[in-house]
Amino acid sequence: MFVKIIASIGPSSGNIETICNMVKEGVRGFRINFAHGDQSEWKKYVEAVREVEAKLGKPIALIGDLEGPSLRLGKISKPIVLQKGEHIKIIYGNEVSDSNEKNVPMPIPKFFEYIDVGDILIMDDGRTRLRIVDKGADSVEAIALTDSVITSRKAIAIQGKELDLPALSDRDINSIKFAIENDFDYIGLSYVRTAEDIDLLRDILRRAGREDIGIISKIETKSAIRNLSSILEKSDIILVARGDLGMNFGLEEIHYHQRYIVEKALENRKPVIVATQLLESMTEKPVPTRAEVVDVSVAVEMGVDALMLTGETAVGKFPVEAVSWLNRIVVFVERHIMPKIIDRVSNKAREHLETIQLKFAKGVLELAEDLSAKLFVFSIHGNTARRIAALKPKIPVYVASQNIKVLRKLSILWGLSPFHINANSYEEGLQNMLSKAMDLKLISYGDLVVLTYGLKEPRQKVEILRIMS
């Protein structure tokens, strides 16, 4: 598969059996949402993922998703059911014990400074909409514009407004520390507004000696759209966070912004993920809707690196089935539609190459493509493999490394199939890679194979083989 699958872990899927089955159905990365749960819960998820990784022998990326500078409700003892037209009160505090009074807590004081009568509050990916009708010093009253269910820790957007909150909260700092200590591969930076937000996280990782942890910038605010070029430059991966995009823009605008973000990522050769409500109906039902199938198909055709399931696998009733359906859709589109349109995606990603490293990656890749060969890359640091993935290969690309951390990060990138080998040199890496590929039945007799490793001056090796015996 060119397009990879990432699944969110939560109460529905945080056990070894379910995680194992999801990996067998195609998951190559797992997301843990640091906005929910606590470190003891997250630790269990991490241990389960790594146990499955060792059991199945497949490198799996772990992504820790920061809460970010968001407005979130405090703790509510039980869900509050609101009918359209009913009133609700938002009061300052961390929690309320009696939700029968239809009071909900807001622990962020600035909320009450920024909010005005007439403002529209949006929650739950746009399903909940409230209008402010009265305002006090530390409370506001709102009327429900939709039938709604309000639960703990839900993010809120104020339509048309962005609050000037710190890019990283104290909770985020503790979550980053947890990600570092537990060897996460990527950290998702929520509500990115400027490139400086990425610099702040990068500096924390650098001071901790963990510059190897990648940063996924989530594009979900108007500021992020305005500053997309500089954010792309500083990020390792871009994520189209359609849930909060739909809370900050009109729903009719989401497809436009998704296409714009993906196109800019292609032009800048940055990996891009699309997330939220891909198969939303499968939270409750075992089969997706026709519209969801088309939505996923369109995303695959755009040339995204990965698709991320959120609520479908974190809290949904059918996490494994959701992964299975996503895999079925991706495989069908790649087999029957992508061959007709992949040139557009690849050509856009291969324009204006400036560095010798990118030109080398393009040369090796196109050599293998022109020969209809399988491309094998031995990689110590993963750089050449990342560049090849960024050029949107049209053929299978297999990457071998002695470094499992490198393989985990590569596992969610377009078209790469990583596997582990032991090697102490580039030459040994090439030989062991070929031998392991035969053992894994990645190549068979008669196949044409191109072997290489990262650009190493003054001598570079590119080997073309016909597997004969």
UniProtKB/TrEMBL annotation:
A GO molecular function annotation here is:
potassium ion binding
The record's listing under Gene3D superfamilies reads: Phosphoenolpyruvate-binding domains (3.20.20.60), PK beta-barrel domain-like (2.40.33.10), Pyruvate kinase, C-terminal domain (3.40.1380.20)
Pathway field: Carbohydrate degradation; glycolysis; pyruvate from D-glyceraldehyde 3-phosphate: step 5/5
Task: Fetch the InterPro entries from UniProt.
Answer: Pyr_Knase, Pyrv/PenolPyrv_kinase-like_dom, Pyrv_kinase-like_dom_sf, Pyrv_Knase-like_insert_dom_sf, Pyrv_Knase_AS, Pyrv_Knase_brl, Pyrv_Knase_C, Pyrv_Knase_C_sf
Q: Does the record's keyword annotation contain Glycoprotein?
A: no
Top-level enzyme category? transferase
The reaction(s) annotated as catalysed by this protein in its Swiss-Prot or TrEMBL entry are: pyruvate + ATP = phosphoenolpyruvate + ADP + H(+)
| EC numbers on record | 2.7.1.40
* Pyruvate kinase C-terminal domain boundaries: 361-467
Give the record's family classification.
Belongs to the pyruvate kinase family.
Q: From the Swiss-Prot or TrEMBL record, give the protein name.
A: Pyruvate kinase
